[in-house]
Specification:
The chain has 632 residues and is α+β, with helices and mostly antiparallel strands. It contains 20 helices and 27 strands. Strand 18 and strand 19 form a beta hairpin.
Length: 632
């Protein structure tokens, strides 16, 4: 015990250092390897939160398939675009936002008409930032609030004649590694200037005020809007495409749109035509139009109804990651048992629920950071504990050595004379028996290690004696259970009868053995047996160390029949196939009570199986009050 004393403080100290380093890096925005996991977990939370109605503030006018079909192609002629804006302006919107790059002169000579249309209502048009392959950060001696902004090489700006009649904003989005936009960079910088993002320009235009840029927020129309690192506005999608009210540009030109859909609203004109290319994957829609993402950002800026993720939430994430890591490691050090594991599971469940509740109320706490902080120390510390626990290691070593000793003598003799036996798999009929102790796993938690090992050894010896007496072989001992096969090394016509007699004697012997155990053990221990006859594939498995086994549906059914026996409170559940093969000479008719047949659904099979149940008339218990399912 004294050797384990320093483990806990050392583990807690190292865990604190790891979690704190990760938290500080996350707070500074330098832990990018978590982005993919955080994106996936964010998608799950958004889907769990469900769709929400968008604020009644923005209308999208979509240059969609219908518009392109009616106007003869895409890109839309400038005259048609001017007509759309003219019509929208006549309905007196609060602002018009054109999410299109008007970089070149139009081919139809309608640029002047388009410029005049832009001047009829407060309007904004899009520009784009061009970044180098490796994004550069500004010089380290720049200590301003804008020091971390990525530097663009240049801006692609609209024609001056359009910029004279409308404000210009940068329309770039920030996507994660999956391509999903997670935020809108509100500020973009070149070497000599800083440009506002398109959504921020539109929101300022609609509010009638210029925004004020603070260190970690933007102030607009008397409202403070917190931003993430680098002045990124986090996005919380309302739903799939069409969640933000959308009308077709063709309907606008045809005068089919109600004035109320545009009047005193922000109107965003953008492309949704199939093949337009301006689409992004989101949790609600794999091909969300970019114009709807822009409209979502405008909604967030105008209403403050987005999701909060800023320096304060990142600090809370870092503190929570450290606390959760120390709590998990502390619980592991307290007791590495069922109670300790349940406590850890409960703690993680509470954290997950709290994280989701915060997210559904508009606070974006990280889900990936606490997991990344807590999991490695917990796994490492748990592994070291297992390695240093000598008694536990001895238990597993003794159990492994014990199980390796069980091999049928007849099979050993056969392999000596036939070394190539089953080098090639062999298809044949065979009888399969599975037996399993019920309640032993729970019982072993309360027993001394040596006592549990002695109990298993007695059980294995009993099974081995009965199987050998009936000329069967044990293909494997799996902890507190065994798989028994009749038909190797050679199949005989008597295999089913031998299997039925072995199953009966096993039930009787195991019941007697359990009744001989001390009452605290006997009352918590039971058994179940399943038996079936049918085709199998006998083969060798393994590399340098091989073992003989059988596979196939017959094996699976025999294993599942134990569940039927446990459910029906019977000692043995066997298939009609085995009973018919065993014949009237079967021991099943000589003792106990045989009931059936009944058509029973077996887990994992679509068709029912004819099953018989056998019970020991001596009154021996076959199952404890709450039998567990077989581990086979």
């Amino acid at each position: 015990m004294s050797g384990r004393i320093p483990q806990t403080p050392i583990a807690l100290l190292l865990s604190f250092v790891w979690a704190a380093a990760l938290g500080i890096g996350y707070w500074n925005g330098d832990v990018q390897f978590l982005d993919r996991a955080e994106g996936a977990l964010t998608d799950l939370r958004l889907l769990a939160r469900g769709e929400r109605a968008a604020p009644d503030l923005v209308t999208i006018v979509a240059i969609d398939d219908d518009t392109v079909a009616k106007r003869g192609g895409y890109p839309l002629p400038r005259a048609d675009l001017a007509g759309i804006i003219e019509k929208i302006a006549s309905y007196e919107p609060r602002a018009i936002a054109v999410d299109l790059l008007l970089l070149d002169q139009g081919k139809d000579g309608a640029d002047a008409a388009l410029a005049q249309a832009l001047g009829k209502r407060p309007s904004a048009i899009a520009a784009a930032a061009v970044f180098p392959d490796a994004i550069q950060i500004l010089e380290a001696d720049d200590k301003s609030a804008l020091a971390r902004l990525p530097r663009a090489e240049k801006f692609l700006r609209p024609l001056p004649m359009f910029a004279e009649h409308a404000v210009v904003g940068v329309v770039n989005l920030t996507t994660d590694k999956s391509g999903t936009p997670r935020g809108i960079p509100l500020l973009v910088r070149t070497s000599d200037k800083v440009e506002l993002a398109f959504p921020l320009r539109v929101a300022a235009l609609a509010a009638g005020q210029d925004p004020v840029i603070d260190a970690d927020s933007v102030r607009l129309a008397g409202r403070n809007i917190p931003t993430d690192i680098d002045h990124v506005l986090p996005l919380a999608y309302y739903g799939p495409r069409g969640t933000v009210p959308t009308v077709s540009a063709a309907s606008v030109l045809d005068g089919e749109v109600a004035r109320a859909a545009i009047r005193d609203r922000i109107v965003v004109i953008g492309v949704t035509v199939t093949g337009g290319g301006d689409v992004f994957p989101t949790p609600f829609d794999p091909v969300m139009p970019g114009v709807e993402i822009v409209a979502t950002a405008i909604d967030h800026l105008m209403t403050g109804g987005g999701i909060l993720r800023d320096r304060s939430t990142r600090l809370a994430d870092a503190i929570l990651a450290v606390a959760l890591t120390l709590a998990v490691v502390g619980l592991l050090a307290w007791r590495r048992s069922a109670a300790g594991l349940l406590s850890i599971a409960a703690l993680m469940a509470i954290w997950a629920v709290a994280n989701y509740v915060a997210f559904s109320h508009g606070i974006w706490l990280s889900a990936a950071l606490p997991i990344a902080a807590a999991a490695p120390p917990a796994i490492l510390f748990g592994s070291i504990q297992l390695w240093l626990n000598r008694r536990q290691a001895q238990y597993f070593a003794m159990k492994s050595d014990l199980l390796q000793q069980f091999q049928a003598p007849a099979l050993n003799k056969w392999l000596t004379g036939n070394p190539a036996f089953l080098l090639k798999p062999r298809h044949q009929d065979a009888a399969i028996i599975f037996i399993d102790l019920s309640g032993f796993t729970a019982l072993s938690e309360t027993l001394d290690i040596d006592a549990g090992l002695a109990l298993l050894k007695d059980f294995h010896t009993l099974v081995d004696d009965e199987v050998e007496a009936h000329s069967g072989i044990i293909t494997s001992f799996l902890g507190d259970g065994a798989m028994i096969l009749f038909g190797l090394p050679e199949a005989t016509a008597d295999d089913a009868r031998k299997a039925s007699r072995c199953a009966v004697t096993l039930c009787n012997r195991v019941a007697q053995w359990i009744n001989s155990l001390p009452p605290p053990i006997a009352t918590r221990t039971g058994f179940k047996v399943g038996a079936h006859f049918g085709p199998i594939v006998a083969s060798r498995l393994g590399g340098s160390y091989q073992h003989i086994t059988a596979t196939g549906d017959t094996v699976n059914v025999a294993s599942r029949l134990m569940e039927v026996a446990a459910k029906q409170r019977a000692a043995l559940a066997l298939s009609d196939d085995l009973l018919q093969r065993a014949g009237p000479a079967s021991a099943l008719f000589e003792s106990g009570t045989l009931t059936g047949p009944s058509e029973t659904l077996i887990r994992g099979r679509t068709r029912p199986l004819t099953v018989w149940l056998w019970r020991n008339d001596s009154g021996g218990s076959s199952n404890p009050p709450t039998p567990r399912s077989s581990g086979f």
